[in-house]
Amino acid sequence: MNSVFSPFVKSLFVTLLAVSATASADEHKSAPAAPKIDPAKGAALFTDGDNARGLPACVSCHGAGGNSTISVNPKLAGQHEGYLYKQLVNFTTADRNQPIMTTYAKLLTDEEKHNVAAWLVSQAAKPGAAKNKDTIELGKKIYRGGIAEKNVPACASCHGASGAGIPVQYPRLSGQHQDYTVAQLGLFKAGTRKSVEMATIAKRMSDEEMKAVADYVAGLK
Fold this sequence. Notes:
By secondary structure, this protein is an all-alpha fold. The protein folds into two domains: about 40-120, Cytochrome c-like domain (Cytochrome Bc1 Complex, Chain D, domain 2); about 135-220, Cytochrome Bc1 Complex, Chain D, domain 2. The protein has eleven helices and no strands.
């Protein structure tokens, strides 16, 4: 019996291999190519926007070179490229729904998100400064050592001693506007901005503690 069916089995096996190889080749062909990142195009979009699509210039809110002068709008200059790209993607999902940025992020192509992020990371960030002398020590204590009794970890453990952050995962915080940082901590606390880590931490902090650490962060260099 084996000698009768052996040719058939062999033929079937060869056919299956051929089909598998074809499918694999098709998958390879259909895989999207990595975007060709062009910081110059990102600069043009940031500076001029795109009137044809109703996309305003990013500079109008985030300042020349990404150095915002409006305290509720973040400074973007020198921010990690991977983190910036991720946030632009997040604005198009339920992870970070914000009326203005969600609207504009949805108008950007994936390639444009990469381009803008690639340009911003190359821009020199202008330093900020702590403003409240009365809370500077509290902010420093929280940033460097956390709040042990509330099980709040040191901010520096993720964002670095100087606030430089870790690409993609944790943003650069040094020099960031106090008002913006406080607002984001509030959004994490309310669950409006999604992050398991930051939501847990923010919920354990008082408004005074959030303001103190945000003020301290603004003066980091």
